């Protein structure tokens, strides 16, 4: 049976959402529901480099040449979009040799390959259990739920500590501007002090 572009796009979303968890910032999807995207599914920033993200999620395993052809086409997006990096996200199994070849083809640009096993590994982390459940309908085991909540609590505790530090820093900053009316500054000055 033939898949629609909307179904393919739905399948790409878990991989594209994982960009956030790889320290990409300012992530801006081009056409999340499909459409002409100017050789970029996503634009993002990582390590002070502007990247494009390209997704390839065909049904079933394809031969390496098909994956390579798609990669080479997506590679053109670096020049077209005036960026320096390409994050290529695919549901295909790629050997170490194949990944190395794709990176060499992308030189001198910065290339990151998110292949099937790498994505699976990322989806099996507490930060990504929600993505896995939402898009792949893979429920969490009891152990994964405990891990998810522990990670979330750790994050909340960290944010709480930062907030407390900001409040203390702000209080000290604010206090440095408070005026002491008993200070020598406010004593009357003599005529001589004024004119000196």
Short description:
The chain is an alpha/beta fold. It has helices at 5-17, 64-80, 96-105, 116-123, 129-136, 142-175, 191-195, and strands at 25-29, 42-46, 49-56, 85-90, 110-114.
Rg for CA atoms: 26 Å
Largest sheet: 5 strands, mixed
Structural class: alpha/beta
The percent of residues in helical segments reads: 40-55%
Q: Which percent range describes the beta-strand content? A: 5-15%
Q: Give the strand line-up of the largest sheet.
A: 1-2-3-4-5
Encode the helix/strand succession as letters: HEEEHEHEHHHH
Number of helices: 7
DSSP, total strands:
5
Task: Explain what you see.
- The protein is of the alpha/beta class.
- Helices cover 48% and strands 15% of the residues.
- The chain contains seven helices and five strands, in the order αβββαβαβαααα.
- A five-stranded mixed β-sheet has the order 1-2-3-4-5, with helices on both faces.
- Helix 1 (5-17) runs antiparallel to helix 5.
- The longest helix is centred in the last third of the chain and has 34 residues, at 142-175.
- The protein is elongated and about 95 Å long.
- The mean pLDDT is 83.
Features:
196 residues; alpha/beta
Q: Mind sketching the topology for me?
A:
Layout: H1 5-17, E1 25-29, E2 42-46, E3 49-56, H2 64-80, E4 85-90, H3 96-105, E5 110-114, H4 116-123, H5 129-136, H6 142-175, H7 191-195
Parallel strand pairs: 3-4, 4-5
Antiparallel strand pairs: 1-2, 2-3
């Amino acid at each position: 049976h033939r898949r629609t572009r909307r179904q393919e796009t739905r399948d790409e979303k878990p991989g594209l959402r994982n960009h956030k968890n790889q320290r990409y910032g300012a992530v801006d999807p081009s056409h999340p529901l499909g459409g002409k995207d100017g050789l970029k599914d996503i634009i993002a920033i990582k390590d002070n480099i502007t990247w494009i993200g390209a997704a390839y999620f065909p049904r079933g395993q394809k031969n390496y040449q098909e994956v390579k052809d798609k990669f080479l086409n997506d590679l053109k997006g670096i020049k077209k979009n005036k960026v320096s990096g390409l994050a290529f996200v695919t549901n295909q199994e790629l050997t170490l040799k194949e990944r190395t070849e794709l990176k060499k083809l992308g030189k001198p640009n910065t290339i990151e390959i998110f292949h099937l096993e790498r994505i699976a590994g990322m989806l099996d982390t507490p930060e990504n259990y929600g993505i896995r459940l939402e898009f792949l309908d893979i429920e969490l085991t009891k152990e994964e739920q405990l891990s998810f909540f522990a990670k979330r609590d750790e994050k909340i505790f960290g944010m709480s500590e930062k907030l407390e530090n900001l409040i203390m820093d702000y209080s000290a900053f604010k206090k440095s501007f408070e005026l002491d009316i008993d200070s020598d500054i406010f004593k009357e000055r003599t005529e001589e002090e004024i004119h000196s």
